[in-house]
Predict the structure.
Amino acid sequence: MVIYFDLDDTLYRLYDPFYKAYQKVFHEDLDIYALWKQSRIYSNEIYPKYLNKLITKDELSIYRLKNAFKDFHQFITNQQALDFQKVYEDQQAHLTLSSTMKELFNYLKEKNISHGIITNGKEKHNDKLFIFNHDFLYNFRKSRLSKTTKRNL
C-alpha cells in the first residue's frame, strides 16, 4: 500500500499564508477568507496568460489583488499589491505542518507504510516549499519523491 498526499490544501492550507500576509500589510477590517477566495478566482482567470508568458508575475499579482479588493469596495495601488505579494511569498516559504499531520507521518513511518507527495504546482515554487519544510521531509521515502525534490534533500 502507498498513500499519496496532495501538497496544496492537504499538507497545508492555501489560505494561511494569505491570511498572515494580509495581517502584515493591510489593516482594513475585511473578510480575509472571502478576499482570498476572490483573489483565487481572479488568479485562475488570468493564470493561462501568465503561463503563456503574455503577462509577468507582477502583472498577475496586481490584477488578482486589485480586482479582489475592488469586489469589497476597497482600492489598492499597484505598489500595495506588489508589497503584499512579496510578503505572501515569504509566508509561503515558511509553511509548517500541523501537529496532526506530523503525527500521521510519524505513524506511517513507524508502520513502514510508503507515502509520498503529489502536486500540480509549478516545480520552482514547490522546490521552495520542500526546501523550507525539512520538518516533514524526513518522513518521506526518497523513492517516493519526485526527482525535483530528491535533489534538494
